[in-house]
Each structure stands twice: as C-alpha cells, then as structure tokens.
Write a structure and sequence with these properties.
Blueprint lengths: L4 E12 L2 E6 L15 E2 L9 H13 L3 E9 L11 E10 L1
Antiparallel strand pairs: 1-2, 1-4, 2-3, 4-5
Length: about 100
Amino acid sequence: MQKSGIWLEVSRVRIEDNKVYVQIVGDKGDKTDDDQPGWWFVDPEAAGTSAEATFRAMARGLDSAEQMVLAKLEANEKSEEADGSKLLCKFIRIQTK
C-alpha cells in the first residue's frame, strides 16, 4: 500500500555530508523560528542512485527552462537521517514543463 503524500515543485537543491536536501517553491519559512524556508531531506531510495548523481540530475532539471523538478513529501516514520523532520522527500520527478 502506497502512503499518501503531496507533490510540490522544488526551488533549490543542496548536497551536504553526502545527503541531498531540497527547498520547495512558495515555502516562506516558519514564522516562529528564523523565518527561513525549510530544507527537506531526500530519501536515498527516492532516485535509486548515489547522492551525487541525484544532486546533479536535480540541479540540471532546475537549471533547464524546459524542465521542472517535483518532490513528493511524506510523513517521516523512522528515518534517522532526516534530522528529526516530520516530512521526508520519498520520491523525485523531473519532467517537461
């Protein structure tokens, strides 16, 4: 059974300590903290490739005027790598606009 989640457009991608993180278009930040958009951890199984290959593919998609990058955020049940986040990017999709 597939979990429910939401597909959102990615605005930025970064790689840090061999982990990939994304920011979402329209995320204005949490008004109670530092007012910065959140970085969401990308599950390594989301792309089925290495973190470096996932980062490069997503960066190419973001740099292209003809493509968009989408991330499916789902509830984080047990991933320790997600830095305590309640959401986790479980799937990515790069598609033509």
